[in-house]
């Protein structure tokens, strides 16, 4: 299943990820990218990561959110920079495990195939 854009508000999304991980005993993933400008992310690292992430999650259930425009992303009160997401750099992949713990793979590590494979598998 390809990435699907998350539609829940951030607080509900956080709760949903934890609940789904606990009930399925499978990690839940959230991919955080910079928003699109003319169909392309404004973030070069997000652009580099996209083919790796799309291929890796082609057969997995994962959600996608766009963290905003450049000015929205740089705002310290951006919802994705807050608890429990605490995204500091883009792209970020968040993994919520069945015990409720949150793990992150950040920036260039997302498009490092070896690190991406270890994180997702």
Q: What can you tell me about this protein's structure?
A:
- With 121 residues, the chain is an alpha/beta fold.
- It has one domain: Glutaredoxin, CATH 3.40.30.
- It is 34% helix and 22% strand.
- It has four helices and seven strands; from the N terminus they run βαβββαβαββα.
- The protein has helices at residues 10-24, 44-56, 70-74, 113-120; strands at residues 4-5, 28-33, 36-37, 40-41, 62-66, 92-96, 102-106.
- The strands form two sheets. A five-stranded mixed sheet has the order 1-5-2-6-7. It has a two-stranded antiparallel ribbon with strand order 3-4.
- A hairpin with a 5-residue loop joins strand 6 and strand 7 (102-106).
- The chain is globular.
- The model has no long low-confidence stretch (mean pLDDT 93).
